[in-house]
Amino acid sequence: MSVSSRRSRNLTWIPRALGVATAGYSVGIIANPSLFAKPTALQAEGAPLPTATAIGIRALGGRDLASGLAMALAPAGDALRTAVAVRAGSDLVDLVLLGTSLPDRTARAKAVGVAAAWGTLCGLSYLAAGD
């Protein structure tokens, strides 16, 4: 095993930590969709969360929970790189959809920023996924 290969394996904690963080946030929005709905302006302050919106947020949370757990648990190498690619791809989809579809301009900008930052972090963690 080369030195760079060993170094890559030692850095797999990076995508794994991002996966755990993704999974943790996902559990939070599945349990309480308002955590996602309020900052994205899908729920007005003091208003009840529409059932359809809560379902959509929980589905998004389920997708992110699966990809986060895959990043946290996949073996180093191809499996972990695939999990990272799925996560980064999901963030790209979020960036486009939320950036063009949210009802509030400020919320769209915030959502694009968060999706871009998280997608970039996850994308860069591809380099640490091991051989």
Let me know the average pLDDT: 93
> What's the order of the H and E elements?
HHHHHH
Number of helical elements: 6
Oligomer designation: single chain
Task: Output the structural class.
Answer: mainly alpha
Spans of at least 5 consecutive residues with low confidence: none
Radius of gyration: 16 Å
Largest sheet: none
| Strand content bin | under 5%
Q: Whole-Å distance between the termini?
A: 10 Å
Tertiary shape = elongated
Helix content: over 70%
- In total, the number of domains comes to 1
Tally of strands: 0
Written description of the protein model:
The structure is a single chain. This protein has 131 residues and is mostly helical. It has one domain. The protein is 76% helix and 0% strand. It contains six helices and no strands. It has helices at 3-10, 13-31, 34-37, 51-73, 78-101, 105-125. The longest helix is centred in the C-terminal third of the chain and has 24 residues, at 78-101. The radius of gyration is 16 Å and the shape is elongated. The termini are close together. The mean pLDDT is 93.
List the helices and strands and how they pair.
Layout: H1 3-10, H2 13-31, H3 34-37, H4 51-73, H5 78-101, H6 105-125
